[in-house]
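Reopening this one. Same input as before:
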Amino acid sequence: MCGIVGLVGAGRSGDIGRMNSLLTHRGPDDSGEYQDPAAGVFLAMRRLSILDAEGGRQPMSNADGSLWIVHNGEIYNAPELRQNLTAQGVRFRSSHSDTEVLLHLYERKGEAMLEDLNGMFAFVLYDKKRRRLFGARDRFGIKPLYLMEQPNGLAFASELKGLLQLPGVRCQINPDSLFHYMSLLYVPGENSILQGIKRLPPAHQFTYDLTTQSLTTHPYWDLNVHAPKQRTEAEWVERIQIGLKEALRRWMLSDVPVGCSLSGGIDSSAIVGLLGEMGYKVKTYSLGFTGEQEQAWNELPLARQVAKRWGTDHHELVMEPTDLLNDLLKMVWALDEPYGGGLPSWKVFQFMRRDVTVGLTGTGGDEIFGNYGKFMTYEGNPLGGIGMYLRKMFGGTGRPTMRRYFNRWYHLPDATKRELVFAAAGSSNSPQTAALLDTLYENSEAGNVRDGIAYVDFKTQLADEFLFMTDRFSMAHSLEARVPFLDHPFVEMVFQIPAEVRTQGRDPKYLLKKAVGDLLPPELLTARKRGFVIPAQLWLRQELRPLAETLLAKERLSRQGILQPEFYDRFVRPHLEGRADCTWQIWAALMFQLWHLVFIEERCTQAPTFTWQNIAQ
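Same output, byte for byte:
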């Protein structure tokens, strides 16, 4: 696991070190640089050693030095790939480095190598003979990669902050990204929050031609949601069991200790139960909160039962929810971009890192199996029936508009943002967020609502919120977070299950529960979904009230020129006075303002030493 950075352009040798130093948290064990001044190519990395500590050092080259690579992530089928390459006559210098596998696979197959990879990765390879860079990102966007074209060059980095250190970079907000953020609480898609800096999308590759100075990107894979296969329910249950075990066996590949985040929900508990059944002895980590108000979503008792059942080395952290606020500015710094979602994972990863370097999480399980029954917004039937209501609601189009879905699941409609939230100049030309989701739905070519909604979630919330947050919060503590539910052969198999079999309206995960139910406490199978939430409504009226009154004051908003000054009177004041519940509209705006303060106003080059209390004084 690493942080990677790179530059193409003359006279950039002094910049690469500054970029790399900002990613030390992603790799505190080692660092390395490669420079080809004649070609103007500079690569660097920070390493968190997981596999082959000695033989896996980077940047790494092939035998004749014609290829160099920096690689962030893990290739979980590397042992099989290495065995196949060895049989073809390839000689390896390392004992079991997955990065060296990438080099030799590229030598043999070129860009087609991506078809063979199973894992989470973002890598960039310098091909000296072809005078080009070639890079790619894993299928679901587990590992990040930012790209920035510059005059006569290119820059890339695992995190946005690595690019902000370059001379001449103008930190100008992308108005479209901010427009979407205020509804979604995360920035979706290829465009980052800053103009001129893009994310390489999940399942995409890029090439940069040094001779023509041209950058091209295109997808190498897509989630197929329109090729169902017919099998009995019992056969599908067996395939889920086998597929998850195979995924876990691959994703347990490590030379360092591995732990499991155990929330007490189905997904993380299934991972622990299957590992226990397979004979693995693991450490488990659970987070709980004190106070009567928090007990409604406290899953410690359920997690404790799972840990006891499988004899794990179990650890619990119990804390006040407000303890999260002590690290609020550190989280903003770690995230790179505005984010208004959940925060408790920060403490889970910090807690786990005391003992282990690798942590497994249940991320992805929700999106694979129905995602809280979001499709019911369309089907209009609490039992989840598909046929009759769809024809009545959607006529002959065969698919719905996403407007109803968008207004049901997100926090600010497009019209409200234009009329009541953004200053006129900041949003008048921004595309509708509902239209963004609608386009993704159409691209899915799904034959039913359940598959279409799942496709949209994979392309937006999973990649740009949950995996984004998981990567930044775990790597801030130098922990490699793994998501075995997103083993791509497993995901591809699950989406071959007809939608009406894969999910049910009342119980979207019923098929997963059938597959792992005998490994889990019975009460866990019927417990309502709790999840990690933050008491933002109360925070804004109590502890964070001075911060909201400072950063969302009419005078500040007027000077800033992004949000309307009236945002305070329309949303903030009524909420603070208890006359309305505008929690998520205010929380989105407040987290944006904290990001703006750290990255735009203060131009921080390291984690802030000031606190939110300092700001609110």
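So the earlier flakiness isn't reproducible anymore. For the record, The first strand starts at residue 2 and ends at 8.
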